[in-house]
Design brief:
Elements lengths: L7 H6 L3 E3 L2 E3 L21 E4 L2 E4 L12 E2 L11 H11 L7 H15 L6 E4 L2 H11 L6 E6 L4 H9 L2 E6 L8 H7 L4 E7 L11 H11 L5 E4 L24 E6 L12 E5 L1 H10 L8 H12 L1 H24 L11 E5 L4 H10 L2 E2 L1 E5 L2 E7 L3 H15 L1
Parallel strand pairs: 5-14, 7-8, 7-9, 9-10, 10-11
Antiparallel strand pairs: 1-2, 3-4, 4-15, 6-12, 11-12, 13-16, 15-16
Helix pairs in contact: 2-9, 3-9, 4-5, 10-12
This protein binds pyridoxal-5'-phosphate.
The site of pyridoxal-5'-phosphate has 13 residues, from helix 4.
C-alpha cells in the first residue's frame, strides 16, 4: 500500500485548525504560511507551520541504550574502512591547520562535480552551510520560499535572522508545487530553498521539471537545492542541479558526507555555487576551517571507495524493502521513499507513539502533517529493521 496521498485538500476543507491554542483559517494556500508564535509549544514540540509539527520525545530524547537508533537518518554501515584508515593515519597531524589539505579536497570535489574549485565552499557538515546561507542572505530581512513540509534548518535560521517564511504546501503526490513556488516569489524574496529528495517525506520532484524551475527562478533570486539524499535515488532518476552552475545560473547546491558516505559524526559537507555567491557567504563566515584534519582525509578516501558507496546504497534499499514488506503485512500505508528513511501514517498520537517505541528500545521521529500523525523511520541494519518492525507491531495493536 505504497500510494499514500497527502490529503491536504480534504483536511483544508475540514474547518478551523488549532495549534498551540492559536486558531488559523483553513484557506491558507501557497506562499501564505504565517509564522506561528511561539514556534514551540508547552510540550517542547516544534510548530513549524500551521500544517507541520514535529513531536519531540522528552524526557526520552536521548536514552542511553537504544536497541535500534533510527531517528537521525544516519548510515549504519559507515564510515568506509578506507575512510577510517585515512582518518587514523591523519590524526597525528592534528597539531596543524589543514588549509592546504582542504584545498586539495576541494579540487577533488570540483573535478567530480565538473566545476572549478572556486565554486566549492566546504564546512563541517552541510547544516553549517545551510545555516550560514540562512543567516548571511537575510541580514537585511526579506523572505524565503520553500515547500511545507520540508527540512527546516535553513528556514529556521533565516527566520531567526529576521526573514519571513513563505511555505508552499507540497502537492498531493508529495512533490514540490513548483508553479506555486514560482508564484510565491515576490520583490522581498531573497532565496528559494528546495530539498530534493525531500525530508521528512522521502519523496522526489521530477528532475527535468525541477531543472527548468531552477533555471527560470534563479534569474530572479538565488535557488538553494539541498541534495543530501540524492545518492540514494536510482541512477535513472537521479539528476543533480550542479549542471546549472556551468550555465551561469545562480543556484547553490548542498551535498554532505553524512548520508551515503556514513560520516555524520566526522562532519564534512559542501556547497557548489557561483563564485560571487560564495564570496558573499565567505566575507563574513568561514566554513572549511571547522573541518578537522583527519576528517578531510577520511572524506577524500571515502570518495575513492566506490565499493563501499555501492554497498551502502544496496543495503539501504534492502532495509527499505523490509520496512515496506512489514508495513504491508500490518496493513499499514507508507509514502514511497527515495532516501534513507520512510514516512508512514500512524493512528496513534505522535508523542505517545514516540514514547511507546522508545520503551521498546527503538528511536524514531514523529511529525504531524496536515492534521495527521506520521512516523519517520531511518534505515538501519537489517537486524535493526527487524527490531523496529517487531516493536511497531507491539505498539500498534
Ligand atoms: N539536509 C538534509 C535534508 C538533511 O536531512 C540533513 C541531515 O539530516 C542535513 C542537510 C544536514 O546534514 P549534515 O549537517 O550532517 O551534513
Amino acid at each position: 500500500m505504497e500510494s499514500t496521498k497527502l490529503n491536504r485538500r480534504d483536511w483544508l476543507k475540514s474547518g478551523l485548525l488549532s495549534i498551540g491554542g492559536l486558531a488559523i483559517a483553513p484557506h491558507l494556500s501557497f506562499g501564505e504560511t504565517p509564522r506561528v508564535f511561539p514556534n514551540t509549544d508547552k510540550y517542547g514540540d516544534f510548530l513549524y507551520s500551521p500544517f507541520f509539527k514535529e513531536h519531540i520525545n522528552k524526557p526520552f530524547a536521548e536514552p542511553k541504550a537504544l536497541l535500534a537508533k533510527l531517528n537521525a537518518n544516519e548510515n549504519p554501515h559507515g564510515p568506509s574502512p578506507k575512510a577510517l584508515e585515512a582518518f587514523k593515519d591523519a590524526a597525528v597531524k592534528g597539531n596543524r591547520y589543514a588549509w592546504r589539505e582542504l584545498f586539495d579536497l576541494m579540487e577533488k570535489i570540483a573535478e567530480k562535480e565538473g566545476v572549478a574549485a572556486e565554486n566549492i565552499m566546504m564546512a563541517p557538515g552541510s547544516s553549517d552551510l545551510l545555516e550560514k546561507t540562512g543567516m548571511v542572505l537575510f541580514l537585511d530581512g526579506g523572505n524565503v520560499v520553500s515547500a511545507d513540509p520540508s527540512y527546516m534548518s535553513l528556514i529556521r535560521v533565516a527566520e531567526a535572522t529576521g526573514a519571513s517564511w513563505k511555505g508552499v504546501p507540497l502537492k498531493d503526490d508529495w512533490s514540490h508545487d513548483l508553479d506555486g513556488m514560482e508564484k510565491a516569489i515576490d520583490a522581498d524574496t531573497k532565496l528559494v530553498y528546495i530539498c530534493n529528495p525531500n525530508n521528512p517525506t522521502g519523496t522526489i520532484t521530477d528532475g527535468k521539471k525541477l531543472e527548468d524551475f531552477c533555471s527560470r527562478a534563479s534569474d530572479k533570486v538565488p535557488v538553494f537545492i539541498d541534495e543530501a539524499y540524492l545518492d540514494f535515488m536510482p541512477d535513472d532518476v537521479q539528476r543533480s542541479m550542479v549542471s546549472l552552475i556551468n550555465k551561469g545560473k545562480n543556484v547553490i547546491i548542498a551535498r554532505t558526507f553524512s548520508k551515503i558516505h556514513g560520516m555524520a559524526g566526522l562532519r564534512v559537507g559542501y556547497v557548489v555555487a557561483q563564485k560571487e555567491m560564495l564570496d558573499k557567504l565567505q566575507k563574513i563566515t568561514r566554513g572549511g576551517m571547522g573541518i578537522t584534519y583527519p576528517s578531510i582525509y577520511a572524506a577524500s578516501a571515502s570518495m575513492d571507495d566506490t565499493v563501499f558507496l555501492e554497498k551502502s546504497k544496496k543495503l539501504n534499499t534492502e532495509s527499505r524493502e523490509h520496512v515496506y514488506a512489514s508495513l504491508d503485512a500490518m496493513g499499514m500505508d507508507y509514502v514511497k521513499s527515495y532516501t534513507s528513511f520512510v514516512l508512514f501514517p500512524i493512528e496513534l498520537e505522535g508523542k505517545a507513539f514516540l514514547k511507546m517505541m522508545t520503551e521498546q528500545g527503538v528511536g524514531v521521529r514523529s511529525f504531524e502533517i496536515h492534521g495527521k500523525n506520521y512516523c519517520r523511520v531511518s534505515m538501519g541494519t537489517m537486524e535493526e529493521m527487524k527490531i523496529f518492525s517487531k516493536a511497531l507491531k507491539k505498539v500498534i495493536v
